[in-house]
Amino acid sequence: MKRTPVQPVLVTGATGRIGRAVVGHLLDAGVPVRALTRRPEAAATLPAGIEVVTGDLTVPASLDEAAQGAGAVFLLWTAPPETAAAVVERLAARTRRIVLLSSPHRTPHPFFQQPNPMAAFHAELERLVADTGVESTVVRPGMFASNAAAWWAPSLRAGDVVRWPYGAAETAPVDDRDVAAVAARTLYEDGHAGGDYVLTGAESLTQAAQVGVIGEVLGRPVRFEEMSPEEFRRETEGQAPGPVVDMLLSAWNAAVGGPAYVSSAVSDVLGVPPRPFRQWVADHAGTFARGSVPTP
Predict the structure, then answer these.
(1) Which of 89, 140, 166, 188 has a beta carbon 3.0–4.6 Å from 252's, enabling a disulfide?
(2) Helix axis angle, 176-188 relative to 17-28, nearest 10°?
């Protein structure tokens, strides 16, 4: 597809996992980058050659200078929702394209249709962007492969058993790097206006099978042990908000008994298939190693 004239791209959430990868893809494509951060010192580990700009999503006026003259904005919402309307209005007035990281709440699959406060906010954010009339693209990653690190690495650093609910629930984990690559492509390449991309991996796998893949990659006898939802609630108390736990349990319960939703969007946009879950595990094997220190 045709590339638009090179203008800076403003990346919000630039120091996070997805935003940082988007920055890298843009630089690789020769696109100038403005990285938005509340604290400039937090951007010290970002690649050289980018422009670090200070701004805060909770203070909409602080974004005016950062967005002025930007060819596109990658909007990854990382703040309370109260300022969303003002932020979107200001961004739309200063750029010609917004790429919004959202969620697959419109996808007619039981896994994505459980009550979810974040999905409701994403729907409102999408409406705000659409109402401005600015050129826009919505990127909707499903279950991230990197969740395996947060969920199962602590158990595997300590032993060879993963206790978890709904082992039979099927998902199609998408690699964070594929999500970032798709977002970056839609930021600098023409032809994505109005695009609505649900991103998944290429393979439906039960949660128990995903843990099995980790064991195979590590060369260890990893075992999955079913945990009841009630046990999961007790063990996560104080570690995760109750509504989030309830949402996950409902989604996993709904995903039992049928294959995960699998889309072709990664291949459609990038021209290459999505990275397999096994590859993500191999590339992050150290995260699961016995006695290893978790990455911040």
Answers:
(1) 166
(2) 50
